C-alpha cells in the first residue's frame, strides 16, 4: 500500500479538470478510461498499473453510452479512482473497478444536477441570441464549463487525496468474502461492457471474424495482445479491399449499362 502526496493530489485534480472539460464538450475524447487511467498511473509513478487498470476499465465502459435520459456511470471518476484505489490499497485492478463505482455514480449524479440547474441559464442565452451578443454567449458557455471543470478537480482531490486514509481503512476492514465479491464483479464488468458493444456492432457478416478471433485468442499462447491486434487489422484490411473491389465492379457495370443505353 502506498500513499498519495499533496503534489500528486493536485496533479490528479488538474488532470481531472482538463479531461472533465473534454467529457463535458466531447471534443478530443481524452476522457476515456484507458487514457484517464494511464495519465493517473503516470502521475502516481506506476505506469504499468495505469495501463492495466485502463484496459480493464475501458472494456467495462466500452458499451456504456447515454441513451435518452439514462446516463451511465461517469468514466472520468471510474478511471481515476480505479487506479487510485489499486495504488493505495494494494488491491488488483479488477477489484478496484468495483470499489470505484460509487465515486463514478457520485460524479454522474453531480453532472445530472448540473444538467437540470443549467437550464436556468437558457433565458439568458436566448436573450443573448436575440441581441446577437456573441461575447455574452461565449462568457455564459465558459462560465458553465468552468463550474463543471472545477467540480471535477475538487471531487477528485477530495476522493483521491483527502479521503485516502479513510478509504484504505474501509477497504482493509472489509471481510475477505466481500472483497472477493468485488473482485468477481470487477472481472465481470469488462465482459458485460464488451458484450453491450457487440450487441450494437456485431453483424451476421462479421460473425466468422469473431469466431476466428476468439479461437486464436483462446487457444494460441501469446506474451501480449499485439499479434491478435495485427490479425484483426489484417482482417479489416481484407474486408476493406473486398468492399472497394465490389464497389468498383458495380460502378463499372453501371457505366457499361449507360453506354449501351446511349448506343441503343
Q: What's the quick description here?
A:
The chain has helices at 6-25, 33-44, 47-61, 75-89, 93-117, 122-130, 134-162, 164-173, 176-201, 207-219, 226-263. The chain contains eleven helices and no strands.
Name the features.
mainly alpha, flat, 264 residues, 11 helices
Ends apart, CA distance between termini? 84 Å
Content-based structural category = mainly alpha
Number of strands: 0
- Largest β sheet strand count, sense and barrel closure: none
Shape: flat
Instruction: Give the SSE string.
Output: HHHHHHHHHHH
* Gyration radius from CA atoms, angstroms: 24 Å
Number of helical elements: 11
| Percent helix range | over 70%
**Low-pLDDT residue intervals, each spanning 5 or more residues:** none
Global mean pLDDT: 83
Would you write up a description of this structure?
This protein has about 260 residues and is mostly helical. The protein has 11 helices and no strands. α5 (about 95-115) packs antiparallel against α7 and α10 packs antiparallel against α11 (about 225-264). The longest helix has about 40 residues, at about 225-264. The model has no long low-confidence stretch (mean pLDDT about 85).
List the helices and strands and how they pair.
Elements: H1 6-25, H2 33-44, H3 47-61, H4 75-89, H5 93-117, H6 122-130, H7 134-162, H8 164-173, H9 176-201, H10 207-219, H11 226-263
Helix pairs in contact: 1-2, 1-7, 2-3, 2-4, 3-4, 3-5, 3-9, 4-5, 4-7, 5-7, 5-9, 10-11
Amino acid at each position: 500500500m502506498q500513499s498519495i502526496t499533496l503534489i500528486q493530489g493536485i496533479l490528479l485534480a488538474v488532470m481531472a479538470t482538463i479531461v472533465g472539460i473534454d467529457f463535458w464538450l466531447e471534443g478530443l475524447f481524452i476522457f476515456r478510461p484507458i487514457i484517464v487511467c494511464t495519465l493517473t498511473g503516470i502521475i502516481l509513478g506506476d505506469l504499468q498499473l495505469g495501463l492495466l487498470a485502463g484496459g480493464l476499465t475501458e472494456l467495462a465502459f466500452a458499451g456504456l453510452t447515454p441513451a435518452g435520459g439514462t446516463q451511465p456511470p461517469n468514466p472520468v471518476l471510474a478511471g481515476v479512482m480505479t487506479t487510485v484505489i489499486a495504488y493505495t490499497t494494494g488491491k488488483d485492478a479488477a477489484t478496484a473497478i468495483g470499489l470505484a463505482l460509487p465515486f463514478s455514480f457520485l460524479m454522474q449524479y453531480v453532472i445530472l444536477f448540473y444538467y437540470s440547474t443549467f437550464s436556468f441559464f437558457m433565458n439568458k442565452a436566448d436573450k443573448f441570441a436575440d441581441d446577437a451578443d456573441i461575447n455574452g454567449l461565449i462568457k455564459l458557455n465558459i462560465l458553465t464549463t468552468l463550474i463543471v471543470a472545477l467540480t471535477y478537480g475538487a471531487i477528485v482531490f477530495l476522493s483521491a487525496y483527502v479521503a485516502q486514509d479513510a478509504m484504505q481503512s474501509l477497504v482493509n476492514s472489509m471481510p475477505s468474502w466481500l472483497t472477493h465479491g468485488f473482485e468477481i464483479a470487477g472481472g465481470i464488468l469488462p465482459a458485460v461492457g464488451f458484450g453491450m458493444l457487440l450487441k450494437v456492432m456485431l453483424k451476421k457478416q462479421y460473425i466468422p471474424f469473431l469466431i476466428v478471433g476468439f479461437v486464436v485468442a483462446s487457444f494460441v499462447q501469446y506474451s501480449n495482445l499485439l499479434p491478435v491486434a495485427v490479425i484483426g487489422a489484417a482482417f479489416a484490411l481484407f474486408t476493406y479491399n473486398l468492399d472497394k473491389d465490389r464497389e468498383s465492379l458495380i460502378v463499372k457495370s453501371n457505366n457499361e449499362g449507360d453506354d449501351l443505353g446511349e448506343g441503343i
